[in-house]
Amino acid sequence: MSSEAQWTVRGVEPADEAAWRELYRGYRSFYERPEDEDAVDRVWGWLTDADHECVGYVVVDGTGRVGALANVRRFARPSTATTGLFLDDLFTDPDLRGRGLGRTMLRFLRNHAAEHGLSVVRWTTAEGNATARALYDSEATATAWVTYDMTPQLGA
């Protein structure tokens, strides 16, 4: 692959399924999620369901080769009475890292949000993900907010 390949972003298409699945498995593995084809199937189903809130994008070269993925969804922001775009997943093929695919996706999402009147593009990442954080720090502003997860439990 030439380092001068032109990379662009578009919505996922049915023909992207095999490449998307490979990348998404890599994403899950990177974050030490167990192998789970049911989860991969479910997320692909969400992305190909026009009525589901999750939307998938891919970064492709001129031949249609998929090099990166992003899965996003809109979210309400009651404190500002606006709607934002949440970037749930961003993953680049490890063999293509350092070629600007992640930056291409982030800039696409920034423009997409502006074109649709969204107030922010927001995401989280692992504190120790230094490579990704260097990119994120060059494109966005880290916030002072701390993220919490609570496990649902009846009768708690």
From TrEMBL:
Domain N-acetyltransferase, first and last residues per copy: 7-156
Keyword set for this entry? Acyltransferase, Transferase
Molecular function in Gene Ontology: acyltransferase activity, transferring groups other than amino-acyl groups
At the top level, the lineage of the source is Bacteria
What InterPro entries does this protein map onto? Answer: Acyl_CoA_acyltransferase, Bact_Acetyltransf, GNAT_dom
A family per Pfam? Acetyltransf_1
Instruction: State the protein's name.
Output: Acetyltransferase
